[in-house]
Write a structure and sequence with these properties.
With 281 residues, the chain is of the alpha+beta class. The radius of gyration is 23 Å and the shape is globular.
Length: 281
């Protein structure tokens, strides 16, 4: 890569902002496929390549999805009034969305019962894909926002008391797919000093500036072991306390193993059903 290439990549990373207000200008289908391709080329643990993508760009469908996944980020907003003025929520504002899934079957090809160990890679892999999509969108001057979405949001206010599968019944989504996130896209309406209008502060419940601090603030320093030893008092624990801690620790280990065993059994049953359906089709 040339120095100019590096500068352009760095600029796309540093200039990325979460955008939630868009114009009505459509994003071409080939551009959406370019964004998905960027997601495909993200790294994945054990090279599972288990990221999957659903492109939605019909206005009425975006409004429908936004109605079910309704979250409004602005502090002190009157939600009832907002729902009338913006029935599609944030997703309904967009001109396109890329919904990201993980294929859990691809994450268990070892078949050795260790799925629960590697399950976290599904979220990590999809997160890498989403970041690639956001970065390329910025380089293409397309506004984007990463919206949280997962199985844990099922039957909560975040999915209007429904499951995400019931919202996406019109799509061919295998049962072994897990929802990992949504990226909304569109051409930004306006900017203020390099930030989307009204977006210098953001937060679900606690609002804070979206501007980043200097690098030193985020770096973890090596511990000064000698200083740590001098300033720390030895912790004295009674024999009874030690026994209680060991007993509780052992019970927790047993509970985790039982949970992992049940998880593996359930996962195996789901995979068999999935393979049976595919073989019949």
């Amino acid at each position: 890569m040339t120095t100019e290439d590096i500068r352009l990549v760095e600029n796309a990373i540093l200039k990325r902002r979460s955008v939630r207000h868009f114009t009505s200008e459509k994003i071409p289908a080939d551009t959406l496929r370019r964004l998905v391709k960027a997601g495909i080329y993200a790294p994945s643990g054990s090279n599972w390549q288990n990221q999957r993508f659903l492109i939605v760009d019909q206005p009425e469908e975006l409004m429908r999805l936004g109605k079910h996944r309704f979250v409004w980020p602005y502090k002190n907003a009157n939600l009832e009034r907002v729902k009338k003025s913006h029935p599609g929520g944030i997703i309904g504002n967009a001109t396109a969305a890329i919904i990201v899934f993980s294929d859990s079957y691809q994450n268990d090809r070892r078949g050795n019962g260790e799925y629960y160990i590697w399950e976290g890679l599904e979220t990590q892999n999809c997160s890498a894909s989403i970041q690639n999509i956001l970065t390329l969108a910025t380089a293409l001057k397309i506004g984007s926002c990463w919206i949280s979405a997962s199985d844990s949001m099922n039957y909560t206010r975040l999915f209007s008391g429904k499951s995400w599968r019931s919202v996406l019944t019109g799509y061919e989504i295998p049962e072994c797919f897990k929802l990992q996130g949504i990226v909304i896209l569109g051409h930004p309406k306006s900017y203020e000093d390099g930030y989307p209008a009204g977006e210098k502060k953001h937060g679900a419940t606690i609002w804070q500036s979206t501007e980043r601090k200097n690098v030193d603030f985020y770096l973890i320093n090596q511990k000064d072991n000698q200083k740590y030893k001098e300033n720390s008092d030895p912790i004295r624990i009674s024999i009874l306390d030690k026994i209680q801690v060991r007993v509780f620790s052992r019970l927790i280990q047993i509970a985790r193993r039982l949970s992992n065993f049940c998880d593996r059994k359930i996962h195996s049953i789901e995979i068999v059903k999935y393979l049976d359906r595919n073989s019949e089709g």
